[in-house]
Amino acid sequence: MTPQEASSNRERVVTVASGWVMLPLLFILLFGDIGLFIYSIAAGKADQPLVLLLVLSLLLLPVLIILMTGLFTLQPNEARVLVLFGAYKGTVRTAGFHWGNPFYTGGAQQPGATAASAKPASASATSATRPRRNKISLRARTYNSPALKVNDKRGNPVEIAAVVVWRVQDTAMAMFDVENFQTYIQTQSESALRHLASLYAYDNGEDNESTLRANVDEVSKALRTELLERLAKAGVTVDEARLTHLAYAPEIAQAMLRRQQAEAVIAARQKIVHGAVSMVDMALRDLAEKQVVQLDDERKAAMVSNLMVVLCGESEVHPVINAGTLYS
Fold first, then answer.
1. Is 80 exceeded by the pLDDT of residue 294?
2. Last residue of a domain, one of 56, 71, 99
3. Which of 45, 95, 145, 323 is in the most buried spot, having the most CB atoms within 10 Å?
4. DSSP secondary structure letters along 105-162
């Protein structure tokens, strides 16, 4: 069962009255009520206004003021969750000027992802209680995780960080299924990153084994897949997830650097020796085929030794010229 199927809170897109229609209508009613109030006093006798009209005008005034609080605006890629006396009534996704029931309650403001990560927990808790009429941004947002120290598949401590591009897909699930969906995203992103790092070796994997350093695209794809599964409960989708930092932990960085240098030297030596052997074999074969000189096994061994010293030596070789015969 998917998180969407398990949740009873599913987004329902609804429409509300246009604010451009309701605003002039409410102003007309307000001015009419003020006029009624003045008429009830002026049309009555001295010190005896028309009581019924006066009471009616006084009762209508707070009602009209309350109705005006139902006006609200939505920017592009912004939605408002409508909650009436604790019951979810739908979500408005259309940008513009709207009017809704003034008793639609304001919800807790979700602190921004970047600001929340930089503020202490107390500051985030304070901002989370500020009413903002249940408005939720539908824009793509970015979460940059801090560098986490974890152990890779082989137990080596490494530092790893990632950037996650996410956006709200289901406003009802984001508002009602988790306490604070942005805090939930941060926690689950770090948890998924730690779990992912433990599944791969940093480098030097076995044959056909994916590693964190050599297979960044594959690792990033696996991270996004895991985040999609984890964040579906909060009605959030992940557009992109990619590693931004990967390094050995400081306590083993020097040792691993020396190991990498040694492996690089060994690989270079192997390539040099392989090339030198091929060149010596080619030289001996060409000399024999073109009958330039006939060499016995002892002279061939000496020639191979000299060529290998020249081709594999790190410093410049100064040859000794034999002015006599080859066999002297």
1. no
2. 99
3. 145
4. PP-BPPPPHHHHHHS-HHHHHHHTTSB-TTEEE-S-EEEEPPPEEEE-TTS-EEEEEE
